[in-house]
Structure formats: C-alpha cells, structure tokens
Design a protein that fits this description.
Diaminopimelate Epimerase, Chain A, domain 1, alpha+beta, 17% helix, 17-stranded mixed β-sheet, 4 helices
C-alpha cells in the first residue's frame, strides 16, 4: 500500500501530514504511526496528522503523538495542517476546522514571502496558581514554571522530572520553562507523547504567555515568544478573574518536502 505525505514544520515543531479524506490510512495501527515518526527508522517527526472530511467544517484534524497514540490538541500542528489544506486547495485565506478540543478558526497571510498562519485557540478560564508555577489547559495540559534564564538550562532533565512526578506520572503533562519579562519571553518545552524537549510547542507557548500575563502583571495582551525553533506571537482578550478569550497563536508554517510511503 502506498501513501502520499507532506512534511511541515512550525518553528521547528515538525509533522507528517496525510490527506486521509478517503479514510485509507490505518490510523488504529499504533506501531505503524510510531515507526513513521521515528527519526532513525522512519520519516521522523514530533507528530503525525490526518486531514479528514467533517460535515460543517473545511476539514477535521486528527493528531497523533510520536508514540503512535492519538493525542490532544497541538497548536503548531494546527497551524501546519491549515497550511497543508491551503496547498491542497481546500481553503483559501481562512479556515474553519474541527479538532479533538473543538472548533478552530484560522487566517493565512504572507510576510516577506513566508506563509504565516494565525490560529484561534480555545478559551482558558481554569488556571491553577502554585508556588512559581501555573497549571492550565490550552487544548493540552501544561505546567509552566518561571526560571531566571535559559543559559545552560537542562529542559529535558528538569521537564522529565515534573512530567513523571507523583502527580502527573499516570496521565502526563507538558512542561514549559519561561524566562524574560513583560511581554517578551523565552519558552522551552518538554512534551509528553514525544517524551523529549521539542523545538517549539504551540499550546505550550500559549500557556506560557497566559502565565506570564498573570505573573508579570503586564498591561499588554500581545506576547512575543522566542523558542528554540523560532519566534511566535500570542494575543488575547484578558477578562477579570484571570479569564482569557479570543486567543490567537501566530507564526510561520513551513512546507519541507513531499514523499510517498510504501508499507
């Protein structure tokens, strides 16, 4: 059996994209998905996505972590699948699609000939505020912690220790470390499912921006975020009692290559 796929990356967060509108891809085959995501024995990526038909929407997004299991929402993945739908001529400059966490809207623009996708995320209202950390869900669960700076900081070791601690070991959580101040921050992320530090995490960047808004008590609702893989922007409407609405994640969604898979 042959499958055509495309590789995309959003600030270094890379994905396999498959047009599965004919439902030909065996999504239930966890070992196959895991093998395709493997960087040594497969194509290599942080996650695999299927674009499928869904009545009332431009398309449906199904996201699988690199461990082969279907996962929660992926922000950079959402931006990349919008770029993929644009390339397939499913959409023009706007998209309305459904994902595991609900419906999303997105806009496409071009800046310096680079394709930029702005993705609307879900509202956030339940935020746990602990001692120098926050815990919230931005489509995926995120633990955010503030650090002095990222110089020589070991995101993998520190993130893994939190992800597998007594509280999170069974279900897991993504772990983000934040440095900077005001509305300019740097974020590094240990992702569950990938079980490693990734170059970027869209839902993590959103969670970190929301956390920074509360932590720094800044008046700005527009955040500029540096990740290992590049720069992203997050902007939102801030309501009283730490409620966040109209949340948008903006950044490049870059085509890497096409390929054919035989298995």
């Amino acid at each position: 059996m042959k499958i055509c796929f495309s590789k995309y990356q959003g600030t270094g967060n890379d994905f396999i994209l498959i047009d599965n509108r004919d439902k030909s891809f065996p999504a239930e085959n966890i070992s196959l998905v895991e093998k395709l995501c493997d960087r040594r024995f497969g194509i290599g990526c942080d996650g695999l996505m299927l674009l499928e038909n869904e009545e009332g929407f431009d398309f449906k997004m199904r996201y699988f972590n690199s461990d082969g299991k279907e996962g929660s929402m992926c922000g950079n993945g959402g931006r990349c699948i919008v770029a993929f739908a644009y390339k397939l001529n499913i959409i023009k400059d706007k998209a309305h699609f459904i994902a595991v966490d609900g419906e999303h809207f997105a806009n496409i623009s071009f800046e310096d000939e680079q394709l930029i996708v702005s993705l609307q995320m879900q509202h956030v209202s339940e935020i746990e505020n602990g001692e120098n950390f926050y815990y919230l869900n931005t489509g995926s669960p995120h633990y955010t912690k503030f650090i002095a700076n990222h110089d020589n900081f070991d995101t993998f070791t520190e993130g893994k220790a939190i992800r597998y601690n007594k509280r999170f070991k069974e279900v897991g959580t993504n772990v983000n470390f934040i440095s900077g101040d005001n509305n300019h921050i740097q974020v590094s992320t240990y992702e569950r499912g990938v079980e490693d530090e990734t170059y970027s995490c869209g839902t993590g960047v959103v969670a970190s921006s929301i956390s920074a808004k509360i932590q720094f008590k800044t008046e700005s609702n527009h955040f500029y975020v540096k990740t290992l893989g590049g720069n992203l922007e997050v902007y939102f409407d801030y309501k009283k009692d730490d409620k966040f609405e109209n949340i948008w994640l903006k950044g490049p969604a870059t085509f890497v290559f096409n390929g054919k898979l035989e298995f």
